[in-house]
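Re: folding output
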Amino acid sequence: MQYVVTSAEMRRCDQNTSEHFGMDSKVLMERAALAVAARIGEWKTCHETTRAPRALVAFGHGNNGGDGVAVGRILTQHGYQVTFMSVGEGNVYSQLARQQMDIVRAYGYQIDTFSNIRENKSQMDWDIIVDAMFGIGCNRPLEEEYAQAVGMIENIKKVHKDDLLVCAVDMPSGISADDGQVCGTAVHADMTVTFNFAKVGQVMYPGCEYTGKLYVEDAGITQAGFLEKMPGAFLYDEKVSDLLPERVSYGNKSTFGRILIIAGSSQISGACTLCATTCYRSGAGMVRIFTAAENRETIQTMLPEALLDTYTTDAEEEDFEGTCAALRKAMKWSSALCIGPGIGTDAVAHCLLETVLREYTHSIILDADALNLIAEDESLQQLLREYQTSDKWVIITPHVAEFARLYGSTVSECKKNILTWPRVLAEKYRCTVICKDARTVVADAQSSQIYLNVSGNSGMATAGSGDVLTGLLGALSACGESAFKIACMGSYLHGLAGNLAAREYGEYYMLAGDIMKSLQQVLPEK
């Protein structure tokens, strides 16, 4: 697990490190600068020339500017030809930035201004640009000179392309560290060297597209600096074998879960087969499918391992009791249940979902049409609010459009608030929420933290991908972990499998079934 921090959390940790533990801020700044210079040195090694590399250090008035000046000083000592460019009107600098500027001048180097550099265009032939104008401090549209400096860097990048390295110090200027939003305009960095912890804005869209290759370097600040008030977001970066509990060698079919899949309709058969097959392929001991009678032949052909119950879809509403009786029998057999993929939103689907929410006694995963039904029916919403207890949990898996229906807002507003609204919805329904978007966010009613999933790719935006995730979650329900951890693990594994599928088939070509097949390479052997 790796913490992902906001600007306020990072400042608090930095301040605690200096004031509570007594670490000198100048030492921390020097370590940060050395880390940036080392990464630039690696790039230089791969682009070796017979002449000394030319570097521009664009720095602002805050401590991030001090980092940049220190980087430039170290580069000069390594033989680079460095131009120091101060950006921003006025002459008020932070104490650390001023100290670094004094050190550079003491070594005999000049510090120029943005206006002078811009006027003397003959100097604009650099191999490396170090962006140290803002760091994590950007939270509003860039003021005029800063915006002009960003424009200059972007124009130089367009001309020189891959022959130029743009290295951001801590954050690309113009990107909010708190949510990844662009503050009017922003630097497209080739790489960003950040310190101690990744920032939320570096992993969320669109900020991650401006960050380039991200390096998280140790500059002397540790988790101890949070003084036990830990950050509110995290991501996974460990091996899957370290994340999943070991599969016991003495287990039987029941040990690994009896999962009931309520999916599919008279018009849709693929949803239940994808979901159920993934559930089996992810380690479930037994899978039982409850679906429309029209799907019998397809399931018996494609997944003969599954137990199967079917219902007729042409029954009158007063005849649903037979369907519900069969469902009750299947529910008693199961240890966990998935409902929603492809079931539709008609009367029979409503009856199935209502029966589950009223009568089931184990944990459930709600997906797709189950969520659409809940969004439209206050009685189902109340049943969902009352469902989770100490003995059973609920995971809901809305993509952002389904999330908007449940939340009662627009998709665009949900996207803007994706870091906060999933927890609001989780608290409202007392459940775990997997809000699926370009970056999936997992929130839980019982947790103060959110999980940011950075695995996955655009090829996973394909029909059936959510069915695969639901089946995977169903299998993971037998591992004995909390709903929150199961949701986090499932999202991570699903994305890893999607990355493998994209590597083999390409993001344009891949199907949901390719994601399912790729789970074989993701899941540990034991």
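--- second protein (sequence, then structure) ---
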Amino acid sequence: MSKLDINKLDIAQKIGQVIMPRIDFNDPNSLPLAKRLVKECEVGGFIIFNGNRDIVTTATRELQAVSEIPLLFGCDAERGLGQIVSDMMLFPFTMSLGAARDEDLVYNQAGFIAREMKECGLNLLFAPVADVNTNPDNPIINIRSYGDDPELVSRLCVAFIKGCQEGGVLACAKHFPGHGRTGVDSHVDLPVLSISKKILLNSDLIPFEKSIEAGVASIMTAHIAFPEIGDGNAVTISKGLVSDLLRNEMGYQGLIITDSLHMEGISKLGNEESLSRRALNAGCDIILDPKDPYTLIQNLSKSSYQELDESQLNPSVERIISVKNKWLTRDTPSGPKIKEQGIDLREQIARRSVCVVRGGVLKSQKACVYTFDVTQSNADISSAFNEHLEEAGVRLEKRSNSLNDSLNKKEPITDNISDDTAIICLLYTSIGAWKKQSFLPDSFKDILTELESIPKETVLISFGSPYVVRDFGNFKTVICSFDSLSECQRAVADVLLGKVEAQGRLPVSLNLN
């Protein structure tokens, strides 16, 4: 395909290029709308949700075939394409790699994700998460971050970017200038952080600086307000943070993409036309995931819209076209994707990320296992762990506790448990947009406080956020993994059984009481 020339694009085509709507394969109306947006509006690309390999691959090929200008197809595959596309590989949460502290492992994981994406026609990966998770009560970053050390996060971000982009897929460092300090999910509301620019420079911005040095193709803005920095607006619509800081001071020349306009952290600040104009005028290049893309494009394209600064729009379109000329026309063979490679990588990450905070090997051959699950899982979430212990000869009694199924507090919670039986408490948490799955409710905490005071062998294991163990300083053994995947649960069981030594080191500070 010949090189694209921005001078041949009219204003409507330029507007189309800076808009990246969603395709949700669970919505039967989504793909027909996408085809209309390509044919009538010449949109620049799409963010993909749901579907399976065949459906996604067919759709991307069909849309590329009818588009005059090559399309970007992005997805939030931080943990692997299986996070978005149902029959692809899913890896443990990012903090697992922070605990393993191995750049080669991160590089290999990113390269594998890139190969799976290219197989489906996807070319833009909204990762790595460059946020330094300095707030233990962060409800939306948390285990999506590599950790709370800027240097560790930087090293692993760079490894991810290299693995991804050497695999022919654009990487995207997010969420500029750092989402790790927030105590609010920006999907739900706008976080406001009253901190100085100096603090950002000494911590949160370091991974973005290193990502820029590594040649990251794109950076995503955070829907966060910093009243003491720049013009005080939310980052996505802040010229002081996007143009002045990221472009001019930090020298970034790649694509700047907004976070989703579906998120209430930004949508509460105005209508989509106003927010998009402000984001583009602030220096953003791509408006991601608007709710009504067709109307948005029509309104932005009206010649009467004097508020849209073409001196900002033209450089944005030039960057988009430059990226497409560089990345979407070169022949980068994806190579054979061997499923066993992904399975082996997942196993390595699971085993090398187990962290023993205190204690060690289980002494008793009998245990009562209490499961505390806030992930709203419909499955028997602890089955992999329990079965692994039972296969090793440990006799188990199991007591579950979910948000919808509380333990009966009318009788002692250790009733009928013999003296030689250990108490094992399993905590299952997770992170998801618009969900409150990273914290334990008070009812769980009350039971755990009672259990940790029992004069028996007591074990506390977290599968998910490590921060949930902070309130329980009396358990004799404390172990952290960062995901509930079966590989993670079996890896922890092997450490508890003394079959292997834990290799992970906590990538965050816990200050266990």
